Structures are given as C-alpha cells and as structure tokens.
Amino acid sequence: MAEAEVKVPSDLVVSAVGLVKEFRDFWNRPKAKAVNDLDFEVHEGEVLGLLGPNGSGKSTTVKMLLGLLYPTAGRLTVFGKSPRDVDTKRLIGYLPEESYLYKYLTAYETLDFFGSLFNLSALERRKRTEQLLEMVGLSHAKNRPVGEFSKGMTRRIGLAQAMINDPALLILDEPTSGLDPLGCREVKDLIHLFKKRGKTVIVTSHLLSDIEDVCDRVIILYGGQIRAQGTLNDLLTIQGTDRITTPQLRPDVLEKVLAILRSQLSEEQFRIDHPRMSLEEFFLDVVNKAQAESVETYG
C-alpha cells in the first residue's frame, strides 16, 4: 500500500522524527537498537556531515535514507515521501564506500549502463556521460576498462555514476576512502562543485579533516543517538577567546601591542605566534609546484 505524502517546507529534503531501528534475533527478541530516537533535518543545498565511530548508527541511518532498511519506529521522509517510494529513489544518487563496478566495461560504457537503469534515452545517456566524464576529469580515459583504474580514478567514476540520474540528493559514504592527498582534494573539490550546482549532499567519513573542509553542518552519532549537531562555526568556536590576525608588525609596533597586553593580562593568558597552513595545504603546494616544473612521477 502506498504511503501518504507528507507536506514539508519547500527547502526540506530529509526529515527524521523519533527515528528508531531495532534488530531482532531469530526468535524476534530485541537484539540491538542501532538507531535510537533520532531527530534531524537536511535542507536543500546543504552539505551535511554524518560522523561517528564504528557501530554508532551511521550505516544504518544511511540504509534507511536509501530505503534499504525500514524504521522500527518514528518517521523518515525524503522529499516529503517514504525513502522506499520509487519516485524518491529517482532523486537520490549514492556512492558506497566501495564502488562495485564491472571491471571489463570502459568508463563510458559504465556510465551508459547505469543511465539505462534509470530509463534515460540514448541521446540523454550520451549527453550525461560526456558531461560527467568531463566534470570528474576522466574524459581522457573514457575508453579504458575501469578495472585498470587507480583507486582515485575509481572513486571519481563512482561519483560520476552517482550523478548519472542528475539527483537532487547525493549520499556519499567515505568518499575519500583509500585516496592519497591529491585524490582527496579532487573529491572534495567535486563536492564543492555539487553544492554550487544546488545539490544536497550527505557525507559520512572517518576523516574529520575532510568533513571540516566540505560540510556546512555536522551530526555526531554515538550509540545510535545524536550527541551533537550544528554548524561547524557553532560547534568549533572556542568561546571566551579572541584572535587578531595582522600583517607582520614592525618591532616597535609589536612592543607597544605587547605592553598593552601585559597591562591587562598575565604572560600565561596570551601568546603571539605565526599562522600555519595545514599539512594538506603545504603538501598540495609542493606537488603543484613540481607539476608546474614538469617533474615526472611514476606509480
């Protein structure tokens, strides 16, 4: 029997209210409550990070969003309908932690095949395939079997596959898993591009730096419950501390600033140092300079 559509605000993509998923044993006795009373929303154009250690309920939540598992209790809607609704599934793209692709198909054939599963016309499949190969930087490899691809190339063709139906909601499970820093940066740049194109993205990752780089808001799960949620700015700002950044000061100006600080605070209460770039930023800078100098690399 079809489930009733729920009226939701126009920008609301996902709504979970009192969401519970309980697994039972052979005798139908409660075995484990993987998700326990979750309340959260995801809005249009938002990039949401779903964080938590193994066993926290991330995978179970994602499977319910995809309509692969049915909630034990509570309400979950995606675009105002059940995630199990066929019309809802047409609006979702999914990248699993491991991309299960046919190794003997070329990149072009892979995207054409997945496009056919959505009943796209031959003309539309050709257009979408060419566009997506260009977007993920694989046009040069479109006639190579995906079984020959590196881990980074496989993730990129996986992202293209998740986009073949032009979904409004993308769910990416560990999108940078196993990638080197360059591959991670390429995937994160693609997530930013999806956001610019108005897509809503849900990302799960164990790499907190990846979440911090791409997400507007995060939800932290533990024991099947939400332990914290909010924007990165709200969650990560250290209250009661101010930081002032300036160009490098002349010694006499710096001494005056220090004199003012010392008149108000003890030496232990303030510090003056130099801003640091992240290790990822430094690594990418070194590699980009080497590439600009046409230094060859192998492997």
* Number of self-contained structural domains: 2
What characterizes the major β-sheet? 6 strands, mixed
Distance between the termini: 54 Å
The number of helical elements comes to 10
Unreliable parts: none
Secondary structure: number of strands = 9
Explained architecture:
- With 299 residues, the protein is an alpha/beta fold.
- The protein has two domains: 12-236, P-loop containing nucleotide triphosphate hydrolases (Rossmann fold); 251-292, no CATH class.
- 35% of the residues lie in helices and 22% in strands.
- The protein has ten helices and nine strands.
- It has helices at residues 58-65, 86-89, 107-117, 122-135, 151-163, 181-196, 208-214, 232-236, 251-264, 279-292; strands at residues 12-24, 30-43, 47-51, 73-78, 92-95, 169-173, 200-204, 217-222, 225-231.
- The strands form two sheets. It has a six-stranded mixed sheet with strand order 5-6-7-3-8-9. A three-stranded antiparallel sheet has the order 2-1-4, with helices on one face.
- The longest helix is centred in the middle third of the chain and has 16 residues, at 181-196.
- The chain is globular, with a radius of gyration of 23 Å.
- It starts with 11 loop residues before the first strand and ends in a 7-residue tail after the last helix.
What is the topological layout?
Layout: E1 12-24, E2 30-43, E3 47-51, H1 58-65, E4 73-78, H2 86-89, E5 92-95, H3 107-117, H4 122-135, H5 151-163, E6 169-173, H6 181-196, E7 200-204, H7 208-214, E8 217-222, E9 225-231, H8 232-236, H9 251-264, H10 279-292
Parallel strand pairs: 3-7, 3-8, 5-6, 6-7
Antiparallel strand pairs: 1-2, 1-4, 8-9
Helix pairs in contact: 3-4, 4-5
